[in-house]
Amino acid sequence: MKKTITLLVVVAALVAAVWYANRVTRQQVAHVRLGGDIPAVGPMAPEFTLKDLQGNDVSLSLLRGKVVLVNFWATWCEPCRDEIPLLIEVQQKYGAKGFVILGIALDDEGKKVVAPYVARERFDVHGNPEAMSYPILLGGDEIVRKFGGLLGYPTSVLISRDGRQIKRFTGRVGDQEINDAIQSLL
Prior knowledge:
Elements: H1 2-25, E1 49-52, E2 57-59, E3 67-73, H2 78-94, E4 99-105, H3 111-120, E5 123-125, E6 128-130, E7 136-138, H4 141-146, E8 155-159, E9 165-170, H5 175-185
């Protein structure tokens, strides 16, 4: 009986900690007016250069002038895999308007696991099997530190055209939430 009560207290504390962390990280930066003539106020996104699956360098600074969603994910992460169809959809929908997703794969095994996964997997996007349609980069602890750490996977950071971090999403992002955030920056 004593063990059961202790276990329930520990589980309740963990649930409360996760709820609090999720609530804190989903708050939008104060005084941000998305869209319009007033520039966004938020911390600058950290500069980074990572390798894509073809071995090319991809730098965030080369995307200045575009709205960027940096998405931290892993092939073994179920919520990450569940989110991919939505990411494919928003990339297709807004790509021509100056929007790009950078998927940063954080698998410990790196390219040998990520490249085959990306090559073989297809995701249901409105009834059509679609491949990941945005650049996949190989990341690790250093890029995670640059973004202030992660509380879980997936985590996405929305960056304005002027390079400022506007919103951070921890956990699978909602359809309406991501569409509204992207549209307000385009």
